[in-house]
Specification:
Blueprint (H helix, E strand, L loop, with lengths): L2 H10 L11 H18 L3 H10 L3 E7 L6 H11 L2 E3 L4 E3 L19 H10 L13 H11 L1 H6 L1 H14 L2 E8 L3 H9 L7 H9 L2 H22 L14 E9 L4 H17 L3 E7 L5 H5 L1 H14 L4 E6 L15 H7 L5 E4 L9 H10 L3 E4 L1 H8 L8 H6 L4 E3 L4 H4 L3 H12 L3 H13 L9 E3 L4 E2 L15 H8 L2 H22 L2
Parallel strand pairs: 1-4, 4-5, 5-6, 6-7, 7-8, 8-9, 9-10
Antiparallel strand pairs: 2-3, 11-12
Length: 512
């Protein structure tokens, strides 16, 4: 079998059979029937969720690995590891345990309902109600420290849970944010002198970089291998998650001192330039934190410098995850623009405060012109920032023709998944089925996975010339199209999504 044929069979494995061209009229009819059905059930939450759970969604581009895992899984691992629970803070801590002194073993939470509820509520947003002593923002970000001991030890299990859930959500591609080789970078940064000269710091750091990169690659090799074992990926009992493509965004901790932030950035750029599994970098931690706010411009300058050294490395940045109650007015005026113009962000995570920026309409036009996608996370924005519905800028982005994709952010901590995020978006902003379909396509179009796009036009989703005469998603594309697809991971994923969408719409149309 020649390579293009083999690749296409692999891409379409598991997809329902769809007809080949000239199938466009049938596809249009099915798409319209699907849109009509969607409009008929959109005000029925149970029917809407069932519809959206079956809908192919492409990718989740904004997903923190440690936040993707539900508290129940973390508790299970803590119990198995013999960890303890510090009752004063509900934090997982190292043994020895002593219930009498307020450090019961984690396993006690699995046989004591009161303790179980306390832990699950402390490690997630479950049943959270804001009080004078605890805001949604603070409760959310505090969860990560409470289960940090567990998340450090269970990357493979976390990956297994993430891809399993993605498959249930009809997602084919995940970009997971994670920090690799953390201990190696800390040690390297601590022994590297820092004078604010980026070129000098890079030169000094390069001496220790091979060891750090080797540690990062070993962590990836080990965790991905053990993930596949846990999911039985090479057996007849393979979990559906085995079919989900996973790539990583190297996450930089923006709330740390400048020498450490620069060392992490350099590691992320170096790793993304050398290992295809790492497709770019991002910056995490609360954007309103003291160091995050104080050093924002300095961090953008670091990105500007490193982008010039590694122009091929992709950048997605959290920016505008702020509200007017969180920071002074000046703090809302420039983060998104600076992230794009100086930080070279190709995608923006959240972007909620865009209309507080200087010259917001000009910024929106720039984002549309440069095709800067915004990753919208509805549950996260409401629970952390208190912003949703009419207060949210999603409709503004759509009206300005800025590309948008829906994402989960931290589905485990938030007690959500991508289907629910689609449902919230639909209900909050009266989105149509064609708009959701465009968002699903956007998620792969703006993914950092390697290879040219299937689409010649990002605005109209017109196929490239090699596939212009084929119905997207067809099982037997012409040789020129098959050859094109064989050379592009991105285009193969996009072709697979089109096959899934056609099958989904055909099924909806058949129900009429």
């Amino acid at each position: 079998m020649n390579k293009p044929a083999f690749v296409l069979l692999t891409v379409l494995a598991g997809c329902a059979q769809v007809s080949t061209h000239p199938a466009a009229p049938v596809s249009v009819d099915a798409a319209q029937a699907t849109a009509t059905r969607f409009d008929a059930i959109r005000n029925s939450p149970p029917q809407l969720e069932a519809f959206l759970r079956a809908m192919p969604k492409g990718a989740d581009l904004h997903n923190h690995l440690s936040g993707a895992v539900y508290a129940e899984d973390y508790l299970d691992w803590a119990a198995r590891d013999g960890d303890c629970i510090d009752m004063a803070t509900a934090t997982a801590v190292a043994p020895p345990c002593d219930a009498a002194s307020g450090r019961p073993p984690a396993v006690d939470a699995q046989r004591n309902d009161a303790l179980y509820r306390k832990v699950i509520d402390a490690w997630s947003m479950r049943d959270f109600v804001a009080s004078s002593g605890d805001s949604g923002h603070d409760h959310f970000f505090d969860t990560f420290g409470k289960f940090h001991r567990i998340s450090k030890a269970h990357r493979a299990g976390m990956l297994a849970r993430a891809v399993h859930q993605a498959a249930l959500d009809r997602i084919d591609y995940l970009e997971l944010m994670d920090t690799l080789a953390d201990s190696g970078i800390r040690e390297l940064a601590e022994r590297t002198p820092w004078d604010g000269d980026f070129a000098h710091a890079r030169t000094v750091l390069q001496a220790g970089m091979p060891a750090v990169l080797a540690q990062a690659r070993q962590e990836l090799d080990s965790s991905l291998g053990r993930m596949r074992e846990e999911l039985h990926c090479d057996s007849a009992q393979a979990d559906p998650g085995c079919g989900v493509e996973v790539r990583f965004l190297y996450q930089v901790l923006r709330g740390f001192p400048q020498p450490f932030v620069f060392a992490q950035m350099l590691t992320g750029f170096e790793l993304a330039a050398r290992d295809a599994r790492v497709v770019g970098i991002n910056m995490v931690m609360p954007e309103d934190g003291y160091v995050s706010m104080r050093d924002f411009r300095a961090q953008m300058a670091m990105l500007d410098y490193l982008h010039a050294q590694y122009p091929q490395v992709h950048i997605s940045l959290h920016a505008g995850e702020l509200s007017s109650t969180m920071v002074p007015p000046d703090g809302l005026r420039f983060h998104i623009r600076a992230s794009i113009e100086q930080g070279h962000a190709q995608r923006i995570g959240h972007g909620v405060d865009v209309m507080h920026e200087d010259r917001p309409q000009e910024l929106l036009r720039e984002m549309a012109r440069r095709h800067v996608l915004v990753e919208i996370c509805p549950t996260s924005n409401r629970s952390i920032l208190g912003i949703g519905g009419d207060d949210h800028p999603l409709p503004t982005y759509l009206a300005a023709h800025v590309p948008v994709a829906i994402a989960t952010d931290d589905e485990g901590v938030s007690r959500s998944d991508l289907t629910r995020e689609f449902a919230i978006a639909t209900s909050s902003w009266h989105l149509s089925y064609p708009t959701l379909k465009t968002m699903a396509r956007n998620s792969l179009e703006y993914a950092f996975v390697a290879g040219p796009s299937l689409w010649a036009s990002r605005d109209a989703f017109d196929p490239v010339p090699a596939c212009a005469h084929d119905a997207p998603g067809a099982t037997q594309p012409a040789p020129a199209c098959a050859a094109f697809l064989s050379g592009s991971e991105k285009a193969r994923l996009q072709w697979r999504l089109e096959a899934q969408l056609r099958a989904f719409e055909a099924g909806i149309a058949a129900e009429r």
